[in-house]
Write a structure and sequence with these properties.
heterodimer; A: about 425 residues; 6-stranded mixed beta sheet; 4-stranded parallel beta sheet; about 15% strand; B: alpha/beta; TIM Barrel; globular
Chain lengths: ~425, ~260
């Protein structure tokens, strides 16, 4: 499938809101912001609506993604892994091959185009794993925008390579010291910046969460994944997939690939959350697959949050910084309610094992986040028939995780190298 | 007495009323109690009791940290209501619940209103609940004689201010500038113009908050607003030296002659 064919957004009743229910997906979503942001969010909503109604805007987006980020990304058949597991044929959508190494670039370039239409000159963004911040920094450099990235201090420490690139791309990276010092705290800090600087600043929210129109807007730009993937899997596998797997932190890569198959009733959609150390408060970031979350309103929207009885948020944990988030995309919750999306969790230990297997059998290095989707596919494939097809969204590449992975597999050669480097630097 | 007649009665013999702020359980409920005693000494008219929330994204660094510390110390919603009930029985000023919507949502709107009324609160300020989403909560509040305090902000259009004015009860909290709590606000012609726009949108008493921290600010607001809202500056004084520092702060802010018994 060549890029110029990527012109049609599927007709999605999801975004045909009933009167008075704009931004709601069933009982979830909405827009809960301080009054000071009302005019800013209204301006953004109106601008996005105009962009969406303008076919030339989507064409411009697709062209930018083709020439700047290498879209369309391919679909790869994992013949070795499929043979080894002995069940379904496994295919992978390669979002790791986009510029900056993850699907985040799709949303970022799209919002960059929106930002230009808004006439704003500065962007801010939160980041967890650093992939969204990295992508935003490249977009800002390319479009000539000032850029500030908020990142929890814990994440700064565990994703240093991305911090390095953000800073060298000209972005200012602020390590957030409040709260749990992870993704949710970076979002709070972005909101604080935005209520102060909304006059010249667009908030490039990185996932399909937060107040309307962000869940819709981020899903819109990420839908390019699913639109491409549907045509590609038909061409490569000769049929639609039986199951599509995607990891779910905030939910943007899952929304991206799932949208390609929402109208295909025979395609089962599987969201894979961070199971961390397993079920029980505080040891994971699984909002739907485990039973530890409940409905709440925070960070601008209504969804399932990992929270206590007072509505205060719980500690979360995942081996993958990008999945370590308290809330989840409201559209996915609605689809889960309706039985359209199944939710599962993958534990840290399962992720380590799956990553090793995928590296050795296929030479792929999925991000720790994306590896959560591989875990569930690998677990379920053997019980499926050889005529069945699995599609996994490899949302990002794993080389950013070199420090975490080296720790996880206790790689002595890497540790020796780091010690030698430290000596070089005069530590 | 409901909030609006209470404020009008106080306003009849004071040229500027005062609303202050306490983060429940920070540094401790004992400290909160002592702070309320100081506020009573200085004839404060209204106090917001902030129920701590883990994601206080509209608050600046000082209040954000105070929220976090209170939660870490194990402060629960029920403790805040219990504290409010004790304070309502003891102090002459009126009390408002201030907090984020998830606190209300998680306990249920009806239960929240019931417990707020039982604790002797007069109303509530929930800054992340837009009026479009507040219909049921405001209906429940009206039935219980509690007032939802609405925020007006300088970025609102006149049409939006009018819409906010319709929903407001008790008084209107006018946010003096963009940004979060706790940084300095320029008291200038821009603020005067904003106050005029608010006045056109509501007949209720008008409180001005965000960055009100000095004697000059109070002098500026006198004759222009009905209520000066003091938040971060008072907590900052407390952090610097407890009750004596807070007494010194209010004495300086208001002029010593305004302190009761002075």
């Amino acid at each position: 499938m060549s890029a110029p064919c990527v012109t049609a957004i599927p007709s999605m009743s999801l975004f045909d809101f009933a009167a008075g229910r704009e931004g709601y997906y069933g009982a979830y979503g909405g827009c809960f912001l301080p009054e000071i942001l009302t005019s800013t969010i209204t301006e953004l909503r109106d601008c996005f609506r105009a962009c969406k109604a303008d076919p030339a805007f989507w064409d411009e987006f697709v062209e930018v993604m083709r020439t700047y980020s290498g879209r369309p990304t391919p679909v790869t058949f994992l013949e070795n892994l499929s043979n080894q597991l002995g069940g379904a044929r496994i295919y992978v959508k390669r979002e790791d091959l986009g510029h900056t190494g993850s699907h985040k670039i799709n949303n970022v370039m799209g919002q960059g185009l929106v930002c230009k239409r808004l006439g704003k000159t500065r962007v801010i963004a939160e980041t967890g794993a650093g992939q969204h911040g990295f992508a935003t920094a490249t977009m800002a450099a390319r479009f000539g925008l000032k850029c500030k990235i908020y990142m929890g201090a814990v994440d700064v420490a565990r994703q240093r390579p991305n911090v390095f690139w953000m800073e060298n791309l000209g972005a200012e990276v602020m390590a957030v010291q409040d709260g749990q010092r992870t993704l949710k705290d970076a979002i709070n800090e972005c909101l604080r910046d935005w209520v102060t600087n909304m006059g010249d600043t667009h908030y490039v929210l990185g996932t399909a969460c937060g107040p309307h129109p962000f869940p819709e807007m981020v899903s819109y730009f990420q839908s390019i994944i699913g639109i491409e993937a549907r045509g590609q899997i038909l061409a490569e596998a000769g049929k639609l997939p039986d199951r599509v797997y995607a990891c779910v932190g905030g939910g943007s890569n899952a929304m991206g690939i799932f949208q390609g198959f929402l109208d295909d009733a025979g395609v089962e959609l599987v969201g894979c959350e961070a199971g961390g150390f397993g079920p029980g408060s505080g040891g994971h970031a699984s909002r739907l697959a485990y039973q530890d979350a409940s409905l709440g309103v925070a960070q601008g929207y209504k969804t399932y949050f990992l929270q206590n009885d007072d509505g205060n948020m719980l500690e979360t944990h995942s081996i993958a910084a990008g999945l370590d988030y308290i809330g989840v995309n409201p559209i996915l919750v609605h689809l889960w309610d309706q039985g359209r999306v199944r939710f599962e969790a993958a534990t840290d230990a399962e992720v380590r094992d799956a990553l090793r297997l995928v590296m050795r059998t296929e030479g792929l290095i999925p991000a720790l986040e994306s590896t959560h989707a591989f875990v569930r596919a690998i677990a379920e494939a053997p019980a499926m028939g050889r005529d069945e097809v699995i599609l996994i969204n490899q949302s990002g590449r794993g080389d950013k995780d070199i420090f975490t992975v080296a720790d996880a597999i206790d790689d002595q050669a890497w540790k020796a190298f780091i010690r030698a480097k430290a000596v070089d630097y005069g530590a | 007495m409901a909030l609006e007649p209470y404020l009008r009665a106080r306003r009849a013999h004071k040229d500027l009323l005062l609303m202050t702020h306490v983060v429940c359980g920070y540094p401790s409920f004992e400290d909160n109690w002592r702070a309320l005693e100081v506020m009573a000494e200085f004839d404060v008219d209204l106090v917001e009791l902030q129920f701590p929330f883990s994601e206080p994204s509209a608050d600046g660094p000082l209040f954000a940290r105070a929220n976090q510390r209170a939660i870490e110390r194990g402060v629960h919603t029920r403790d805040c209501f219990a504290f409010m009930a004790r304070a309502a029985a003891r102090f002459p000023f009126k009390l408002l619940m201030m907090g984020y919507y998830n606190t209300v949502f998680k306990m249920g709107e009806a239960a929240f209103i019931e417990q707020l009324a039982a604790a002797g609160g007069t109303g509530f300020i929930v800054p992340d609940l837009p009026v479009e989403e507040a219909g049921e909560l405001h209906r429940l509040a009206a039935a219980a004689d509690l007032d939802p305090v609405i925020l007006m902000t300088p970025t609102n259009t006149d049409a939006r201010l009018a819409r906010l004015g319709q929903a407001a009860r008790g008084f209107v909290y006018a946010v003096a500038r963009k940004g979060v709590t706790g940084t300095k606000t320029a008291m200038d012609e821009g603020l005067v113009g904003f106050i005029e726009r608010c006045r056109r949108a509501t007949d209720l008493p008008l409180g001005i908050g965000f960055g009100v921290s000095s004697r000059d600010d109070i002098d500026f607001l006198r004759g222009r607003a009905d209520i000066a809202i003091i938040g971060t500056a008072a907590l900052s004084a407390w952090e610097h030296g407890g009750a004596p520092a807070m007494q010194e702060f209010f004495a300086e802010l208001l002029g010593r002659t305004q302190a009761r018994g002075a």
